[in-house]
């Protein structure tokens, strides 16, 4: 997704090899308005060379912030953090009589912003557009999952034997509990290798209701059932592993500076120690990753 190449909707790119590539559209960005994108595209001409030029085309600061959050300024040489910094500087640009004069921000000492880790980018991708093309969140914790003998979805679907007791974990995509299924809940989870379908019977659903309904990252244990190409795991145990996703933003949260509210307020509670890093990371990942869709 990029301000110089994307449209409102998703687009098919030229075929490369066996498959077509899809360029994501701006409609994926949470909270952005189509009218803002129409303004963006109408003023593009031969392409934007700066974020200030996009602002001059009539795109609002609010929309620019959402575009920066979505990492849509790569063709201008900015990742999301640098882009947000640039957008912030535009907010004090002189207007009307003083238009064209340098803003106070341009006179400030330039700050070298710390680079965001790949994990941080992935979390922000999910928070803004609901997915990431950079990496899958579960890939960052694969080594820890392997230590717990948790299999990948690909292994479940291709290598595990029917009747085998298995453990598998993934982001919850869909929960379905049809009224005609006698209380059975069907769940689909996803990791960096593919999908796995889970079957949870009514009695077990009531036992693990909280884990099933609120987990972003769900681990289950159960018996594998295979019939030709159809593979399910008949669940016997559920564990919420959502906190493990906090490792994706661990460095960013643990490196936040501790500052007093003022130099004279010696008793003030330091920021951000009002929240322990683990609590902050949990809140970030809870907000970034949706809890899956529910169907009847």
Describe this structure in words.
With 296 residues, this protein is an alpha+beta fold. The protein has helices at residues 34-42, 51-56, 61-69, 80-90, 104-107, 118-129, 142-147, 153-158, 202-207, 209-214, 250-254, 277-288, and strands spanning 11-16, 19-23, 165-176, 185-191, 194-200, 217-227, 230-240, 293-295. The chain has a five-stranded mixed beta barrel with strand order 3-4-5-7-6. A two-stranded antiparallel ribbon has the order 1-2. The protein is elongated and about 65 Å long. Pfam families: HHH_6, tRNA_anti-codon. It comes from Pedobacter psychrotolerans. Residues 2-83 form the DNA polymerase helix-hairpin-helix motif domain. InterPro entries: DnaE2/DnaE/PolC, DNAPol_HHH, NA-bd_OB-fold, NA-bd_OB_tRNA.
